[in-house]
Amino acid sequence: MKVVASWSGGKDGCFAVYKAVKEGFDVSNLLTLMSSEGKSNFHMLPPEMLTAQSEAVGINLVKWKTTPKSYEEEFKKALLQMKATGVEGLVTGDIYEVAQHEEG
């Protein structure tokens, strides 16, 4: 199954991608939401570090610009765009936040 990974650059997301690959999922992209050209959301990593991580694991990095106000809307847009390319699932290391979104 072709999936995309929500990628913050942190250890939980990295472990989730590792597990997905080990279980046979085709992780097509790492999706990082960027608060600006210079920093990612959440861990505030510079883009150069995110690119280095992407290259190290051999998975394409997609940087998607957002603001705190438009985060949820932009995240959904990014996922819908990837769904149109055949992505069928989402890998995330953030279990708590995913569960919250399912309730709404």
Give an account of the 3D structure.
This protein has 104 residues and is α/β, with parallel strands linked by helices. It has a single domain, classed as HUPs (Rossmann fold, 3-Layer(aba) Sandwich). Helix content is 43%, strand content 22%. The chain has helices spanning 11-22, 47-57, 71-83, 95-103, and strands at 2-6, 26-34, 60-65, 89-91. The model has no long low-confidence stretch (mean pLDDT 84).
Low-confidence stretches: none
List how many beta strands DSSP finds: 4
Q: In percent, how helical is the residue content?
A: 40-55%
CATH architecture: 3-Layer(aba) Sandwich
> Which secondary-structure class do the elements indicate?
alpha/beta
- Quick check: average pLDDT? 84
The CATH H-level homologous superfamily: HUPs
CATH class: Alpha Beta
| Cα end-to-end separation | 26 Å
Shape: globular
Major beta sheet, strand line-up: 3-2-1-4
**Rg of Cα set:** 13 Å
Number of domain modules? 1
- Strand fraction band? 15-25%
**Biggest β-sheet, characterized?**
4 strands, parallel
Helical region count?
4
Element order: H for helix, E for strand:
EHEHEHEH
